[in-house]
Structures are given as structure tokens and as C-alpha cells.
Amino acid sequence: CEDPLEKGAEGEFVLAELKDPSPYLAKTEKILLYRWNRTYPDDVVFPLDALKDFRLTASEEFAGSSHDNITFEVYER
Question: What are residue 74's DSSP bridge partners?
């Protein structure tokens, strides 16, 4: 799909890795966010100010194969 953020329907998961999700946040029900314990060069970053309209409902830390610490967070309206 060329534009999954545009075509995502209610209840569907959409991966927003390479495009700014800001224009689509009004119809977003839930955000699944992964944070790594490193800083990388980037072209697109998630707009953290967008989380102000959501509440953190779950958080889990775990070790990955290439990162000592990965944090998985769930934000819901």
C-alpha cells in the first residue's frame, strides 16, 4: 500500500515508520511506541507532543538482541 496512514481503517494497525503521523492522529485510537536506549541519526521522528491527547496504559522494558534496553509503551485515548 502506498499510503497506509491514509488508508488505515478503524481497528487496523498501521506502521508509521517513515512518515510523520501528525495529520492522522485525530483518527488514531492507540499508539504502540518502542524506545531504544540509543540515539540514532534520523530523517523522521515521532512527534512526542502528539502524546498529550493520549494516556499511557502499559509499559514494558526488555532486552533485545542488539539493544540492552528496549521500552514498549501503549498509549490510548
Answer: 32, 58
Supply the DSSP string of the chain, one letter for each residue.
---HHHHPPTT-----SSS--GGGGGG--EEEEEEESS----S----GGGGGGSEEEEEEEE--SS-S-EEEEEEE-
Residue with cell 522494558: 61
Q: What angle do CA 23, 28, 30 make, to 5 degrees?
A: 140
Query: Full-prediction pTM beyond 0.85?
Result: no
- Answer for the pair 73, 56: CB distance below 8 angstroms, yes or no: yes
**What is the per-residue pLDDT across 36-46, written as a single tens digit (0 to 9) for each?**
877 778 777 78
Residue length, the chain?
77
* Structure-block grid coordinates of residue 64: 533485545
| Residue 67 pLDDT level (bands cut at 50, 70, 90) | confident
